[in-house]
Design goal:
Elements lengths: L17 H8 L11 E6 L14 H10 L4 E3 L6 E3 L2 E6 L5 E6 L14 H12 L14 E8 L2 E6 L6 H6 L9 H7 L13 E7 L3 E6 L12 E6 L3 H10 L4 E4 L2 H8 L5 E6 L2 E7 L9 H9 L3 H7 L5 E3 L21 H11 L6 E7 L5 H14 L3 E7 L1 H9 L5 E7 L3 H8 L17 H9 L3 H18 L2 E13 L3 E2 L3 E2 L2 E2 L5 E2 L2
Parallel strand pairs: 1-10, 15-16, 15-17
Antiparallel strand pairs: 2-3, 4-5, 5-7, 6-7, 8-9, 9-10, 11-18, 12-18, 13-17, 13-18, 14-18, 19-22, 20-21
Helix pairs in contact: 8-10, 14-15
Length: about 500
């Protein structure tokens, strides 16, 4: 989902350490009449603001407000809308995309006018092995990027890829960067981000947050909110207090218990948001006994997902057995792993599972209700004789362990709108180890066939086959599609949500 109007865009989520948050927020309320900054929650410190390297949610969310792409995705639908490109044409064979670019777009901070050369540089850079971009595979089908003239770009694909606009150009690898700024600032680029979006990156204070100011030259019209801060608030309970005091004006809430309390708070406005998100568990298929499909299926049968949704998420979610989300193109509901602990024990016995041995389950600390859910999974597996110890890690360490495949089981979250973004990223052999932390290769041929199929009906058939193959091979355990709560103070108007983004430039403040 993306914002529906040319001026629209972006959402942000924010988190911080409890003691640090309380010291930052202080005892006084931020009154918008006196303090011009709108304060929104962000979930952690930034790791990278280079679109070729962005991995985390907080990097992604802030990038939405600073950068622009050739196209963007509409809110709540697969429709692709113009952004830096005003229009485009696709050849009948699906191989050649020709974009007409918006004229007069200016880079932030005096870096000149946006042109087709910026597009070519951005995409060539991601495709260059020396960049070591995690999105290089997203451009694997791109044969060439040509700057035909200053306001025309031609992209030629080696194979047709009907999801190219939505899965690549309207997502992270589609953000356009400024070559001069990257080269000028080098390793200091994190403090000097340059884009063409509705807000200008002003300053970043690690441990505190990011300040942005309205881009008065924004091609979609200058935003009404002149200044905003994305404040790091890691704990949902702290964000709840900050919202009540007015130290935060808008926040996303992941934890079910906090969301339930906020929903009954008459002083705040809340909205429960279903997103195309799935929570699942990776098996490390490079390590025994998880290289045995019988073990993986056994642990899948041993999980009572409905009990977890009710007990941990307080009903704020829907159990699932597939990695695509309801409403997503290609989603099917007839892949099932019904709760069956008897069958789980039978499969473990057949596999000669090493009873008594303990395995490590690595989870991302403080994120949503993952630690509580991991404890529930630990208890479920113990009932069938499988012992796991839980290791909760901060994001930077979690990402390192994930990259090195140093785990037996790993918590995971996929939030995408286009099915190919899920299947070709988390379940294709070319994406090992990140994000394909299971090291799974069993559906590569089906995924490849779906990617190049131009007939929508046939593409649906391939996606159904991929989901059934993943169910059969069980490289992961899909658990549920959770809901997210958006909460804000009533003086903030025009609060809407896009795909991974606040619609910040559409917000206003009133009585």
């Amino acid at each position: 989902m993306r914002i529906a109007t040319p001026t629209a865009r972006r959402r942000f989520v924010v988190w911080l350490n409890l003691a640090l948050v309380l010291s930052l927020l202080g005892p006084s309320t931020v009154a918008l009449g006196q303090q011009p900054e709108l304060v929104l929650r962000m979930n952690d410190d930034l790791l990278s603001m280079d679109p070729a390297q962005i991995v985390t949610a907080q990097d992604h969310e802030l990038a939405y407000v600073v950068y622009s792409g050739l196209v963007r995705q509409n809110v709540g639908s697969p429709e692709i809308l113009p952004d830096l490109a005003t229009r485009w044409e696709v050849s009948s064979n699906g191989l050649v995309y020709t974009f007409t670019l918006r004229r007069g777009v200016m880079w932030h901070k005096g870096f000149g006018e946006f042109t087709a050369e910026d597009v070519k540089f951005s995409f060539d850079r991601i495709m260059n092995p020396a960049t070591r971009s995690r999105f290089r595979a997203d451009f694997s089908m791109v044969k060439s990027v040509e700057a035909v003239d200053p306001h025309t770009v031609r992209i030629t694909l080696a194979n047709p890829y009907p999801a190219f606009l939505s899965a690549v150009l309207a997502y992270r690898p589609g953000w356009i960067v400024n070559r001069k700024a990257l080269e000028q600032y080098g390793r200091q680029y994190m403090a000097n981000v340059v884009g063409t979006g509705p807000y200008v990156f002003e300053r970043y204070v690690p441990g505190e947050g990011v300040h942005v100011v309205a881009n008065r030259d924004y091609y979609g019209g200058a935003p009404k909110i002149q200044r905003a801060m994305f404040r790091i608030v890691k704990e949902d309970a702290v964000a709840e207090i900050a919202l009540q005091k007015g130290d935060l004006h808008v926040a996303y809430i992941e934890k079910a218990a906090v969301a339930a309390r906020l929903a009954t708070n008459p002083a705040l406005v809340t909205r429960s948001i279903p997103l195309p998100r799935v929570f699942f568990v990776h098996f490390n298929m490079t390590r025994p006994p998880f290289d045995d499909v019988r073990v993986r299926r056994a642990l899948s049968y041993a999980v009572d997902k409905r009990a977890i949704v009710q007990g941990v998420f307080l009903g704020q979610g829907v159990p699932t057995d597939t990695v695509l989300s309801p409403g997503m193109f290609g989603y099917i509901s007839d892949v099932r792993y019904d709760y069956d602990p008897v069958r789980a024990k039978e499969l473990l016995s057949e596999a000669g599972f090493p009873m008594g041995k303990t395995f490590e389950f690595v989870v991302l600390a403080g994120w949503a209700d993952w630690e509580q859910m991991a404890a529930a999974l630990q208890a479920e597996w113990r009932k069938v004789g499988v012992n796991v110890k839980l290791t909760a890690l901060e994001e930077a360490v979690y990402q390192q362990r994930r990259l090195k495949l140093e785990f037996d089981l790993l918590s995971a979250n996929a939030l995408r709108f286009e099915p190919d973004q899920i299947l070709a990223s988390w379940f294709h052999g070319t994406q090992i180890p990140v994000p394909n932390a299971s090291s799974y290769k069993g559906a590569d041929a089906l995924i490849d066939s779906a990617r190049i199929e131009l007939d929508p009906k046939k593409r649906l058939e391939f996606y159904a086959a991929v989901q059934r193959k993943i169910q059969e091979d069980a490289p992961v355990i899909p658990l549920l599609n959770p809901k997210l709560m958006l909460a804000w103070r009533p003086e903030v108007k025009g609060v809407e949500v896009g795909f991974l983004s606040y619609q910040l430039e559409a917000m206003t403040v009133g009585k």
